[in-house]
Amino acid sequence: MHDQPIWAEIDLEAIARNCRYVQSLIPSSSRFMAVVKGNAYGHGSVPVAQTALANGADCLGVARLEEALRLRRAGIQAPVLIFGLTPVSSLTTLLDYDLIPTMASAEMAEAFSDQADRLGVQLPVHLKIDTGMGRLGIGAVPLPGEASAYHPPALAQVQEVCRLPGLRFEGVYTHMAQADADDLTHAKGQIQCFTSLLQDLAAEGLEFPVRHMANSAGVLQLPSSHLDLVRPGLMLYGLSPRPHDPAVTDPLHPAMALKARIAQVKKVAPGFKISYGSTFTTDRESIIATIPVGYADGYFRMLSNAGHMLVHGKRTRIAGRVCMDQAMLDVSHIPDVQAGDEVVIFGSQGTGVLSVDEIAEQCATINYEIVAKLMDRVPRIYTSKRW
With a threshold of 0.90, does the pTM exceed it? Predict the structure, then answer.
């Protein structure tokens, strides 16, 4: 038992089950990279990484160097790929901690090559190809009217980059932009672009040990994207890239619930005004409960006067504006509410359920953002004896 006023409850067994589900969807020849960037989408990178590695993951993916160093400093020795920009000045750190950066452009590769060559070292790297995300990567998207599945100059550019000294290209990858769509035309075009480029490179003697492109949506919807390795993120946390598709969503097990304890309960008269701007006025004698959650915790101010929480398993509406550290609920319809009672901000309580997807829809955003925005000041409580 703990006495935290607010906490995120993380079910590591749910993450383990989701990892095993990933394994059931991919061929035995494909490896599995658990994506734990953004503090494992708000779930805690170290315990999630440990759980994923114990349940089928072969390696880990992060966005930034500091995220990778956090894993290493926690004693995690599995391969770690850094997806985002890594400064050239970090080359010795990468080598010391056995980390793999991404080369996303010829200029970036040349800078790392020069530094590695001067030091007389070989830096393991992965090459990023842009097949239609429009983010990082060597551009391979065919121009209008080009007959090839990829932009022909990409072939020579990749070959030139891979000849640079000091770099050992252990993998090549791209990222899918619309693998979660109803219409998979764009996603299939990315698959064709990527695989055609790799086939032509192989025909000229350049092959990569590991080819990868499938995110969670690719794992779930596009077996032809699985290649040598898959990179699920969202689905590891029990959240769906297609939340309105039961076939995709139902097998997943949400791993996070956000909970708090009521800080104060007060009875107020009709006409009483609540919170900043006095945007909520009671129309009867009411019971108002104050909850220690606000936008500094990552809870959306957009939910003011509109969102709900669960108290005693029943939905109750937010009264007034969400503050930086607190929000108020009108609990007049729920008997015997007291300070210290547990409130579920999202998750389940009794027969009541408030899903991350529902909150995301109400905030006009995606489920990723609801969990990833949760701030570090909210303690993570793990439902596992190890954590």
Answer: yes
